[in-house]
Specification:
mainly alpha, 2 domains, two-stranded parallel sheet, two-stranded antiparallel sheet, 7% strand, AAA family ATPase, P-loop_NTPase, AAA-ATPase-like_dom
C-alpha cells in the first residue's frame, strides 16, 4: 500500500512541513521570480488563504544562513544548481509577521508591535558578542533588548529605528546583505483604521 502524505492543515512553517512529511505543492519557482525581481523592496499581493505565509517561510528557509539545505531536495528549485550554489543559505534573514499587531487602542497595538520586533531581536542574540561589531554597536544591540516586568521597553522613536538598526548590525556581522521578510504587513493599518487610530499607526510604520 502506497504511503499517503498527510495534509498540512493549519501548518504555515515550511521547515516543519517538509521535515514531518506533509503534502506540499511545490512553489519553489517563486524563489527564481524573487531573485529575478531582486531589488530594494518586493511586495507579494495575493488573496487571503493563498499561502503567502507558507511562501514567506519557504523564502526564509532558502535564504537564511545555516539553513537545512535538504529541505529543498526533490523540489523544483533544486534543479537550478547554479542559483542554489549562489543564494541558498547565503543571507542573514529578518522575518516578521504582523498578523497579531492589532488592538482596540493604539497602545495595545503598539505593545503588540514591540513584542513582534522583540522576538526577532532575541532570535539573533549572538550578535551581542560579535567580534565583527564595535563596542558601540554591541551596546546599540543590547539597547534593543532592555526588558522590564517581562516586556521589551521601546519608545516610539526606538521602535521606528529598530528594524533599520538590526539590519545594519546583521550586515556588519555577516558582511552580507540582509533579507527582510514581512508577512501580513497590512494588518496593523487595517486594524488601526477599524479602531480609530490609523494616523498614529501610520506614523510608526511609515
Amino acid at each position: 500500500m502506497a504511503n499517503t502524505l498527510k495534509l498540512p492543515v493549519g501548518i504555515e512553517n515550511f521547515e516543519e512541513l517538509r521535515k514531518l512529511g506533509f503534502y506540499y505543492i511545490d512553489k519553489t519557482s517563486l524563489i527564481e521570480q524573487f531573485l529575478q525581481s531582486w531589488g530594494e523592496g518586493i511586495i507579494f499581493t495575493r488573496p487571503r488563504r493563498f499561502g503567502k505565509t507558507l511562501n514567506m517561510s519557504m523564502l526564509k528557509s532558502f535564504f537564511e544562513i545555516g539553513t537545512d539545505k535538504t529541505l529543498f531536495d526533490g523540489l523544483y528549485i533544486s534543479g537550478n544548481k547554479e542559483l542554489c550554489d549562489e543564494h541558498m543559505g547565503k543571507y542573514p534573514v529578518i522575518f516578521l509577521s504582523f498578523k497579531g499587531v492589532e488592538g482596540l487602542t493604539y497602545d495595545e497595538a503598539f505593545d503588540a508591535f514591540v513584542r513582534v520586533i522583540g522576538k526577532e531581536i532575541s532570535r539573533v542574540s549572538f550578535i551581542a558578542d560579535s567580534d565583527k561589531l564595535t563596542m558601540l554597536e554591541r551596546e546599540q544591540y543590547k539597547g534593543l533588548t532592555i526588558i522590564e516586568d517581562g516586556s521589551f521597553v521601546f519608545s516610539k522613536d526606538k521602535l521606528i529605528s529598530s528594524l533599520q538598526l538590526l539590519s545594519q548590525l546583521l550586515y556588519k556581522h555577516y558582511g552580507q546583505k540582509v533579507v527582510i521578510l514581512i508577512d501580513e504587513y497590512d494588518v496593523p493599518l487595517d486594524k488601526a483604521f477599524q479602531n480609530g487610530y490609523y494616523k498614529e499607526m501610520v506614523s510608526v510604520i511609515f
